[in-house]
Structure formats: C-alpha cells, structure tokens
Amino acid sequence: MRNLLLGILVLLTGTAVQAQQTDCKLIKGTDEFSNGPKLSTGFIQLQDVQLNIDANGKEFDLFFIIKNPAANCIGEESEALFVFEGGKQKMEIRNTGGDNCNGFFHIIMRGGTYTPGNLNKLATKKVASITFSDRNDKKTIISLRADEQEVLMKMADCIAKEAKTLLAK
Predict the structure, then answer these.
(1) Dihedral angle sign, alpha carbons of residues 136, 140, 141, 144
(2) Which residues, 6+ apart, have CB-to-CB distance to 12 below 8 Å?
(3) Residue 16 burial (CB count, 10 A)
C-alpha cells in the first residue's frame, strides 16, 4: 500500500513538473518592420488593463491597453510604476510609444543576447500593483491578484527565454 501511494505521488509530481514546463505557449509570427521572426504572448487581462509582450530578437515590446476613459491619454511623459511584493522594491518606466488617447502604453526594451534587467525583474519578482499615469497625470492603478502575479511572471519568463532562440535565425 505504501509503495502504491509513493508511486502515485511520483506520478503526480512528474505530471505537475511536465505541465509547468509546457506552460510557455507563444504565438509565432513575422515582424511587420524587419520581416524577421517574432514571438508574442497574446493578450492577457489584468483587471482594467490588457498586456501583450512581443519579442523580435532585438527588442521586447510590452504593450498595455489601459481601459480607463478618464486616464487614457498617453504621452512621452507617461509612466508605469511597478511595485513588487512587500512594497520595498519599485520600478518606474516611461512610455516609449507615441502620443495617443486610446490607452496604448508601450515599454520597449532592447534585447539581444541578454535579458533586460527590467524584464528579468518582471520574470522573477511578483508585481503587487502597477500605476499608470497619463500625460495629464491622471492615474490608473491596478492591484494584481495572486493568480495575475503568477501569470505575469510566467509570461515574462517565457518570452525572455524563448526570445534568445530568435537570435540565431
């Protein structure tokens, strides 16, 4: 009986590890500017904000769509403040996309043979909240639930690792 229970436990543990290893599902495509290969996570919903991460081997593009009509005019002075679990560590990043009143917020990071430090933080630390400020300093604040924190970490980790495969192509 004891051996049977141990066997089931080993089988379940192996299945869980296998499921974790196959969680990295990316959309393969072609970059519209360089015609080179591109990977995309697809959009996820983080309360009033959607997020997609693209990678093309040279850069990563974190594309947020903010669904707050009172604070969706984004400009070059707009910022995203990421507060990590525990509240002591923070990361502030400016919008690198153009001016718009559609809630489109881009964070473009140079890639290559290394993973950008800010993307690495998103892949290894749980984000407790993200505060977006628009060009009029109006705020959109989202507090991430535990499941959203995990999805964001896995998404960032997955694209960071898989983007390295685009370098050889």
Answers:
(1) negative
(2) none
(3) 10
Q: What is the DSSP letter of 100?
A: B
Cα radius of gyration rounded to whole Å, the chain: 18
3-state SS class at 60: strand
Question: For the residues 114-136, what does the mean pLDDT come to?
Answer: 96
pLDDT tens-digit readout, 59-72: 999 999 999 999 99
Residue with tokens 């229970």: 5
- Would the pLDDT of 91 be above 80? yes
pLDDT at 21 over 70: no
Count of residues making up the chain: 169
Is the CATH number 2.60.40 carried by domain 27-166?
Answer: yes
- Asked if residue 95 lies in contact with residue 124, where contact means CB atoms within 8 angstroms, the answer is no
With tokens 């072609």, the residue in question is 30
Between the CA of residue 12 and those of 4, 24, 78, 147, what are the distances in Å? 12, 20, 47, 22
Instruction: Give me the residue spans of the domains in the chain.
Output: 27-166
- The residues facing 59 across adjacent strands are 110
